[in-house]
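Subject: Protein record for review, amino acid sequence with backbone structure tokens
Why sent: The fold of this protein is of interest and is recorded here as tokens.
Enclosed: The protein record, placed directly beneath this head.
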Amino acid sequence: MIIGGFAAQAQAQSNVTIYGLVDAGIVGERGGAAGSVTKVTSGIGGQSRLGFRGTEDLGNGLSAIFQLEAGFKADDGTIDSAGTLFNRQAFVGLKSKEAGQLTIGRQYTPLYLAQSQVADPFGAGYAGSIKNLFPSAGANTRASNALVYSTPTVEGFSGDVLYSLGEQAGSATAGRQFGLGLNYAQGPLNARLVYNNKNNDTAAVGATPAKLQDTGRNTMFAINYDFQVVKAFFAFSADKGVNSAQIPVANAYGYTVAPKPSLDSNDVLIGATVPVGNGSIMASYIRKNDKTVNNQDADQWALGYLYSLSKRTGVYLAYAKIKNKNGAGYTVGNNNEAGSGDKAFNVGFRHAF
């Protein structure tokens, strides 16, 4: 009773919402150097999380906002990322109906939001995740020390700008990152054009000299259109420079010569979701074209089904297979794990609150 009363009081005073997702199931992976792997795991379709978001009306259309979100593993109860608490999101800012929104902290990049919200029928989760081949690793997903400005929406159009400080002593540019997004969403059409630029330099530390590297640059166009009987998806990404197309697992297949991350590649996705009964079928084809002399291309086919038991609870089944070429080393993972082989299946359930 005391806890419930306190929660109600906090809700009334500061408009704080507690939310979360618990996602767990069985994953089977095949084809990697580790052999056949079958396990209970967490965050297959979407990472299990506990979050707090709040807003305070400051008057004249201006509000103070914040969000704190921690990832955890439902299979064993541990924190998703050791040494951190709110590893998924942690920001505070101001929101104006007329001027837009400015937030500061750890936040999603425009690139990843376009991948997960617009480009991928699997929503960046399950075995068919866009993250298996598109550039989504590390800072491409979230950026720490970031300032993000989002414009108001006008006639369906909006924009986002992200700038993340590298915060390396002795250098104003090492490790910094910026991203841009132009968005359109109206009726059945949803489209985004985004750009991400990550500085890969490291500043000098003591006797260790500075390391200068090429930047990683990603430009992506994503679009989906809801025809009611089917929702169609398309995405194209151009990736250039160091860390523009990371390999999630360094050498998953135990090659004598480990796969090399591409410094110049294109990615294409074609996909669809089809409503069937109380659920929907998810399907996609992704191709990575490595344009370097290594020519380490890869193709992925994926199929899944998400069945809704209610608005907040669902069960799912998914399968994907990657064909690596010329020593490429991409793996079939899911939303929270990179995977260990070239094929995987998932079965599980999720509950949002």
In short: Residues 1-13 have pLDDT under 50 and may be disordered. Residues 2-14 form the longest helix (13 residues).
